[in-house]
Write a structure and sequence with these properties.
The protein is mainly α and about 375 residues long. Helix content is about 65%, strand content about 0%. It has one domain. It has a two-stranded antiparallel sheet. This is DUF2333 family protein.
Length: about 375
């Protein structure tokens, strides 16, 4: 009996070994055939092929490096701004310190020249510009790189389990910045919605809405194109110009409670859409570590929360007066803590297991839980503002 069991397992091992050898031979055969063909060619044929192979290896090396190295990534980077030390909401005229005020008053009295006004700049505009700077200046914008566009042997990288996490994260961050740029143009930078649209913010919004996948050349329409990062860099400059105008009191930022309510509504709706995507994937697919779409869903949601964490932290400074008057500080702090907790989830491999499973975790359900918690906090803040 023991010999039969031993023989069975030996047979299984031998079958597995034969299968592995056949698979390796099947994978290596095209390379061996290509090597045999290449060896028999003349130099004028070998040369261009060798140059193309070296170029391809270099491009893939650069592409892999860019997808794996995340520069400027720091979930706590908002702490460096020290926004909690701001005393004035965005757009409000800054008081001049006492000694300097006296000196300026004397100067104005003798020369007749009034001191130049200075207003508080927008933390939201700063956050949006710096998030975009991280995406396209500190890092390469992965989604428009040539090899990302070509895919893995024609297959979209988002349908593979590798080399797409950073691209999904960047698109999630950009989603938060895009939504914010729309609100800056339509409500936040207009006095009660009746003043003219700020041209710099209008330019920033237009550039941030540009296609995320554009390379230097395209097929639809056919011909050369301006790549995506160029548009986003232009948006950064426009956001900085707006803040310069705001600091000189030549632009508007309307930090009223109803504008904050509308902004919170838009952010909550955006997060609600993402939570629905996470729920759909989590409920209908349970491939565990083998779900090739789980990673891009997870990292898009992660990037979106990363972006909104910075922007909502900035909104706490821009609407500081409203938050103080409505006693919203505890709720606002709790919302930011929920986002910090979500950003601490950084698994090496994303798993989309069953919610009641006991082997493979379900990272999508966890991220969806935190996304809904943040959305719930935003809804609660809105209810308080509506009272």
């Amino acid at each position: 009996m023991r010999d039969q069991i031993t023989g069975f397992f030996k047979g299984v091992a031998a079958a597995i070994g034969r299968g592995v050898r056949i698979l390796v031979a099947w994978l290596i055969w095209p390379l061996m055939a290509a090597h045999g063909w290449y060896r028999g060619r003349r130099l004028w044929v070998k040369g261009p092929i060798a140059i193309f192979a070296v170029l391809l290896v270099a491009l893939y090396g650069y592409f892999i490096w860019q997808t794996q190295v995340w520069r400027g990534f720091d979930p706590n980077f908002v702490d460096t701004y020290r926004w909690n030390e701001r005393n004035m909401p965005a757009g409000q005229e800054l008081p001049v310190p006492g000694v300097e005020a006296q000196a300026q008053a004397q100067t104005a009295g003798t020369s007749g020249i009034a001191a130049a006004k200075q207003c508080q700049t927008s933390a939201i505009a700063d956050a949006a510009a710096d998030l975009t700077d991280m995406n396209v200046n500190q890092n390469a914008w992965i989604s428009s790189m040539l090899l990302y566009r070509l895919g893995f042997f024609g297959m979209d990288w988002d349908h593979t389990p590798f080399l797409d996490n950073k691209a999904s994260f960047q698109r999630g961050v950009n989603q938060a910045v895009r939504r914010t740029s729309v609100e800056l143009v339509d409500t936040l930078a207009r006095m009660r919605g009746t003043s003219g649209v700020n041209t710099n913010l209008q330019d920033a919004r237009s550039n941030l809405q540009f296609d995320e996948y554009s390379w230097y050349f395209g097929l639809s329409p056919f011909g050369p194109k301006t790549p995506t990062p160029s548009y986003y860099r232009a948006a950064i400059n426009s956001l900085h110009k707006f803040n310069t105008e705001l600091g000189n009191c030549s632009a508007t930022f309307d930090s009223r409670a109803d504008n904050l309510v509308q902004f919170i509504d838009r952010v909550a709706n955006d997060l609600g859409g993402t939570s629905a995507i996470l729920r759909e994937r989590s409920e209908n697919y349970n491939g565990g570590w083998f779900d090739t779409r789980a990673d891009d869903r997870f990292w898009f949601a992660y990037g979106q929360i990363y972006g909104y964490y910075a922007i909502l932290s900035a909104a706490g400074a821009d609407f500081s007066q409203v938050i103080r008057e409505r006693n919203l500080a505890p709720l606002w702090t709790d919302m930011l803590k929920q986002m910090q907790a979500a950003l601490r989830i950084q698994p090496a491999i994303i798993s989309n297991g069953a919610e009641d499973g006991w082997i493979m975790p379900t990272h999508l359900a966890v991220m969806g839980f935190y996304t809904l918690r943040v959305r719930s906090n935003l809804v609660e803040i809105r209810l308080v503002l509506d009272r």
